[in-house]
Amino acid sequence: MSFGSQSSCTDDPQKAPRARRVVFETGPLSTWFYHALTSEGVPAICIEARHAQKVLNETLNKTDANDADGLAQLAEAGFYKAVRVKSFDAMLARTLVAAREQLLNMSTQLGNQIRGLMKTFGLIIPKGKGQVFDGDVRKLLDGTVELAKIILPLLEAWHDIRKRAANLGRQLLIVARESQATKLLMTIPGIGAVTAVSYVTAIEDPENFRTSRSVGAWLGLTTRRYQSGEVDYDGHISRRGDNRLRGLLYEAATVLLTRTSARTESSLKSWGLKLRERLGFKRSAVAVARKLAVIMHSMLKTGEVFNASAGAAV
Length: 314
What we know:
Helix content: 55-70%
Number of domains: 3
Order of helices and strands: EEHEHHHHHHHHEEHHHEE
Strand content: 5-15%
Number of helices: 12
Radius of gyration: 25 Å
């Protein structure tokens, strides 16, 4: 990651002790960089990497020094797009969600590996999860000593991963219960603790967005548009922004459209089902996910619960 700074002519160009702006691109270390620099009184600004790269790619030779010089020129000209850097508390909650998701994925992959390895020997594990899966594996391994020596360590690892994922899940529930914002969002059908925590930590302050409608675009849930001369068409959604949160909202929309219960009935669901008849399931689910993002922001802003009859906060 390269740094660029704008400073007065009398400053040391290597250290810039009186820099007016210090810019750096978004990246894995950007949160730590920003908070570490601002805590020392450095005027740090995190800028959009895609925006900066279009300018930096114009240099003939790509080196760290040339990148830093290019960022310094962007800082001096003010030709950059500043990115909001999340707080450490928000990043901690997001890390908890990501770690739990990673363990759940590992558990699923390991379970599939066990199924595949045993199938080679004609041992077909019936459909089942948790203790049912464990019991079926052990029953099929009964009498196959050599194969059991191979599969049982995998099964024990599968158990351990599930136990640790459950532990992180309990931590996540505690975080959700301690936040009024997440409890408010969980009044929406299909929105659970994981989605609510992920949304709140991504938005942080509702005032970060001028309008609720802009949240859909920020999450990459609005269609891209291309216009040039006589050509003018809309494409697929942009898929910019938070991939994980976008996926969680899509899952929530899927639950809302497919589950049949008194709790899931709302004008939002009716609207989505009408769209499904006209556009198909996937496109209607994306539209409902975008609507959910807008509704959730409105609820955080007003502090009012989900209104099923209106399909939004009142």
